[in-house]
Design goal:
The chain is mainly α. The chain has three helices and no strands. The chain has one domain. This is Monovalent cation/proton antiporter, MnhG/PhaG subunit.
């Protein structure tokens, strides 16, 4: 039974990682590629690590896997946001079918604190 549950987690994680690879190839611009790959690969790696924890059932492996999952879930979206913001202000064009762009092209000037 443990093998089945672990196999399901590993298979689902592998499918999400495959989906992120397809997203890199099929999405039209940097921003949609980055969004698709960040979300899908983070979830995929989390599921693979969860399957590893279920299979091995060891505290050392589980604690490391949980630490890696937390680290990925905290850092991957932040890194993608920063890279996307840098690309936007660096002049990387949006996809021509992008309808809403709420971010001004010029970086906002920070006001000095009182």
């Amino acid at each position: 039974m443990i093998d089945l549950i672990s196999g399901i987690f590993l298979l689902m994680g592998s499918l999400f990682i495959l989906l992120s690879a397809v997203g890199i190839l099929k999405m039209p611009d940097l921003y949609t590629r980055m969004s698709a790959t960040t979300k899908a690969s983070t979830l995929g790696i989390g599921l693979v690590l969860a399957g590893t924890v279920v299979y091995w059932q060891d505290f050392g492996i589980a604690s490391r896997a949980v630490a890696i999952i937390l680290f990925l879930f905290l850092t991957a979206p932040v890194a993608a946001h920063i890279i996307g913001r840098a690309a936007y202000f660096g002049g990387v064009p949006l996809w021509e079918k992008t309808h809403i762009n709420e971010l001004p092209r010029n970086a906002p000037e920070e006001e000095p604190p009182d």
